[in-house]
Amino acid sequence: MGDAELVVALLAACLPNRHSQAEGGLGDVAALDALMTALRFTQKKADEEVRYAVLNTASLLRRHADVHAALADAMQRGDSVGECVALIEQQLATCDDI
Asked: pTM above the 0.70 mark?
């Protein structure tokens, strides 16, 4: 399992709560932990990977909060997946910290 997969799996756990409703972030972490157990990671290795991924995901979301906000707006408008991907690519095109 690569870093990108871990980040995607933990996005919900790290996203700020924009709608005042608790979403299943901790459940996502538990599911990821169960997956790592099924992949025969030791508990120590699984804990280390999850901890790293949570910190990395939270850091990415903080650094790119403007992109996240623009994406949320686009999704709320009903933009297509392609349009959302293009928006992200456009906004990150000049970033040198990704």
From this structure: no
